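Hi R.,

Here's the chain you asked about this morning:
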Amino acid sequence: MTRTRTPVVAGWFTPDAGDDGFRLLGTRCSACSAVFFPREDAFCRNPGCPGGELAEVPLSKHGRVWSYTDGRYRPPAPYVSDPGARWEPYVLVAVELAAEGMVVLGQAAPGVTLADLAVGALVEAVPGVLNEDTDTTWTTWHWRPVRAPEALS
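And here is the predicted structure, written out as tokens:
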């Protein structure tokens, strides 16, 4: 049986774009040029802005690790996990997107450990899976270390 791939939150990232085309999606205000993630579709959140049109923009694919930690406990509901399965710690990464001047939190890609990260290290946003059930693969984004030097985009 084929599962339907469904974003955990629609409109926050490009769906099924593969590693190369994958991007987080934010919005930019036409009046003050502020960029928002998560996206803002109703009004500019900049308190000094008179307000403008909000347009969807792809965010930088690369950023630098601002902070990171591991989750060593099973979070409470509504987090989805099988209470019968052995708990595996996961890594959370806060990444500074230099072009946008913002920090975006996300889970590290599977297999990435604390030892693979350092503050200031270059990482990239890649497609990921948060959870699967019988009908649906719930997609999200992950941060993955970049091994070769690349320009930020």
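One quick note: The two ends are 38 Å apart (CA to CA).

Cheers,
M.
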